[in-house]
Design goal:
Shape: elongated
Number of domains: 2
Number of strands: 4
Oligomer: single chain
Largest sheet: 2 strands, antiparallel
Strand order of the largest sheet: 1-2
Helix content: 40-55%
């Protein structure tokens, strides 16, 4: 009887130990799985963050490289520095081209007529207003122009101008050359080149300007 009770008691203890071992093993497995899931989550999060930061870094670098390229927005090395603060880019649709009407005849569209057509006071005034910024004077503290242009003896300022206005000036001279009977005093100054030399010079300047500032917009 005592032996049976003793064996039952021992058997119960063994069952308790087995249950404790099973519970301990399950807890260890759960803890291991939990750690594995945490490590996996941290790994995935790290990879995702590194990918995001890598993409942002590439975009930032690309934007930096793009912003440093010479362009009308960023400027060019040859730009006259004092002029930059007074100039801004404006998107504008120009008109004044030649079109075909419904009868197949060439006609001018409705815009840009103030600069073309038969010569007269209105056309001359339009060009004079357009070329208002042709000639510029700077003192030696504003811009480094010494040895690249001439200096006015009276004021000591240095003479210069922007190429865009010089190109427009050349275009206006070519326009005036078409009407020699009207613009009789344009090409006859004793110290100026001849009329043909003027035309050749202005034509060459226009060609160089267009080659250096070629527009890739498709014609319509």
């Amino acid at each position: 009887m005592f032996g049976a009770l003793f064996r039952n008691s021992m058997g119960g203890d063994e069952d308790d130990e087995k249950e404790n071992l099973l519970e301990g093993s399950k807890a260890t497995i759960k803890s291991t799985k939990r750690k594995y899931l945490v490590l996996r989550l941290l790994f995935v999060t790290g990879v995702a963050l590194n990918t995001i930061f890598g993409i942002l870094g590439l975009l930032t670098f690309a934007s930096f490289v793009q912003s440093g390229k010479p362009s009308y927005e960023n400027g060019f090395d040859t730009d006259l520095e004092p002029a930059k603060d007074s100039i801004e880019l404006v998107v504008k649709t120009f008109s004044g081209g030649v079109e075909l009407d419904s009868n197949g005849n060439f006609v001018m569209d409705d815009g840009g007529h103030e600069f073309i057509g038969s010569p007269g006071p209105a056309v001359d005034q339009a060009w004079e207003t357009l070329l208002g910024g042709l000639n510029l004077d700077f003192d030696e503290d504003e811009v480094v122009l010494k040895d690249s242009t001439f200096q006015w003896p009276e004021s000591g300022n240095y003479f210069t101008g922007l190429d865009v206005y010089h190109t427009l000036h050349c275009l206006n001279r070519l326009r005036q050359a078409i009407y020699p009977d009207y613009y009789t005093n344009v090409f006859n100054h004793p110290s100026d080149p001849s009329r043909m030399n003027h035309i050749d010079k202005q034509s060459s300047a226009m060609q160089i300007s267009r080659l250096c500032n070629g527009d890739l917009m498709g014609l319509k």
